[in-house]
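Field reference: sequence -> structure
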Amino acid sequence: MARKILLQTTIPTTEDDWAIARFSLLRDLLAGLTDGDGRAVFEVTARDRAPPGAPDPVLSTLDRSDYAAAWLFAVDTGDGLTAEDCAGLSAFRKRGGGLLVTRDHMDLGVSVCTLGGVGAAHHFHTQNPERDEARRCADDLDTPEILWPNYHSGANGDAQEIAVAGPPHPVLSDPAAPDGRLRWLPAHPHEGAVDAPPDDPSARVIATGVSRVSGRPFNLAVAFEASQDGGRAIAQSTFHHFCDYNWDPACGCPSFVSEPPGHGLADSPEAQAAVRRYAANVALWIAGLPL
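Structure field:
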């Protein structure tokens, strides 16, 4: 039987924003994964949150659902999750559900801070800032209105070469690569900041990138192993690693995006394959399935 997974943003459906319709390539990729007998691995639900002012009916009750895993794209400016939503998500992971939580620069997605465990892995401008004060400075100089954290890994539509941190994690495996490891993720001009919470032994940084502006290394992904505190989880530095515009700029973007796109992914079949492999690996791993 296919495992149910949820792909959800933290904003209501809004055409000129990063609503769930802008993650259609990811949705189709995951819905198209099959097992050895040709059966669908996942049943995918993709939705935006309900209008603000009340708990989201899905997120606030997620622990009582039959979903195996949830992907949360925190694209809000601070009001994306209610206390009830955070409680539902935290209880969902506590009962063994898999979770991916991703955000973007500065305070975009700051409503995830109170999520149990995974929330502590996300650092923002006004809440839970990076512990190293030297990192609290602007890195993306092309958009001065965006304050730290905003690590510049390249243009939207380009690929960034990643480094494996520590022992290679299963979500970074790639049988097609010479060394069996993924080398590429989508680039973004202003990624957010993630790190392993120092008081959580189940968490560790698994992949890092390097700013093309400052040469500063930064974390791309933190993995949480299943433990008594909950199911498997991933904290990702930016939702742009998974959205249509970064996989293919021809898909378009909201009108407020000002930076010109690149074409590094379009020019590299290897990078395109790695990006999709990473998304599939994450989906399988947080759902507790073999890669």
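Note: The radius of gyration is 17 Å.
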